[in-house]
Write a structure and sequence with these properties.
Strand content: 25-35%
Order of helices and strands: EEEHEEHEHHHEHEHEE
Structural class: alpha/beta
Oligomer: single chain
Radius of gyration: 17 Å
Largest sheet: 6 strands, mixed
Number of helices: 7
Bound molecules: adenosine-5'-diphosphate
């Protein structure tokens, strides 16, 4: 079924129309790629769907709950409990060991520290991060840091993970490894993924690709039967 739905989303910045009436649904368990040139409105769409930004018009629904009309406090709680985020880089707290970075979203949600760290730890080996638990982000490679970010995005078992150019700062091989791990972690968790990218390679990991141009979706619903091509 549909997990997340944006209806007729409009967002302006001054005279710039970043979103010109976008409809988009995200289904349970699907990986959706949002593609398009720089400045086309991809990040704005992600921010509206994720409750980071309020659209000027239109509606966002998460599992039947209206998101766009919620007060910032409620949207913030929703982001923390139902959504996970992976950005291009610079999202880990440099002074905290990797395992505490991953545990943080749980602790912010009230899970006791020991339990949160235990749950966080269980993500390291499956993501190829065995023995990296106590390293600080500055002691990790770019690909390792992104895998820690994936663990942090998934540790709360979110309904939807949003990723904005998650491989943008990585070389091609490392980027592909990160996409492999990201998509399989999402699928294993029963979460959905919305990934913003201008890299067609990254989109190949997704079930569906939509193309944004000038704040509108100009192509989409290319369902991919087989998943990851090899
Ligand atoms: P993309 O993610 O596809 O690069 P964005 O969604 O970031 O595109 O931006 C869409 C349009 O909105 C662009 O013209 C951009 O310059 C403009 N825009 C985005 N965010 C802001 C902002 N905070 N202030 C002013 N203009 C913005
Ligand atoms: P783009 O390359 O699409 O223009 P930016 O890097 O400008 O994307 O980021 C767009 C927005 O995404 C920022 O204004 C911010 O709200 C959010 N963002 C990007 N990186 C991070 C991050 N590391 N942590 C939190 N928010 C981020």
């Amino acid at each position: 079924g549909v997990v997340l739905e944006g209806r007729a989303l409009v967002k302006r910045f001054g005279s710039t129309v970043a979103l010109a009436g976008v409809d988009q649904t995200v289904r349970q368990g699907e990986a959706l790629a949002v593609m398009g040139p720089s400045g086309s409105g991809k990040s704005t769409l992600l921010h509206c769907l994720a409750g980071i930004m309020k659209p000027d018009a239109g509606e966002v629904h998460l599992l039947g709950a209206r998101v766009d009309t919620m007060k910032e406090r409620a949207r913030s709680a929703l982001r923390r409990t139902r959504f996970g985020f992976v950005f291009q880089f610079g999202q880990l707290l440099p002074e905290l060991p990797a395992v505490e970075n991953v545990a943080l979203p749980l602790m912010l949600g009230g899970v006791p520290r020991g339990q949160a760290v235990g749950q966080a730890r269980s993500w390291f080996a499956p993501l190829g991060l065995a023995d990296m638990e106590d390293r600080r982000p500055g002691e990790l490679s770019g690909g390792q840091a992104q895998r820690v970010a994936i663990a942090r995005a998934l540790v709360t078992s979110p309904a939807v993970v949003f990723a904005d150019e998650p491989t943008g700062a990585l070389d091609q091989n490392t980027g592909h490894e990160v996409m492999d791990l990201l998509v399989s972690a999402i699928k294993g968790n029963g979460s959905s993924l919305v990934v913003v990218t201008h890299d067609p390679q990254v989109a190949r990991w997704c079930d569906r690709v939509v193309e944004v141009r000038d704040g509108q979706i100009i192509a989409g619903d290319h369902s991919r039967a087989g998943g990851v091509p090899r």
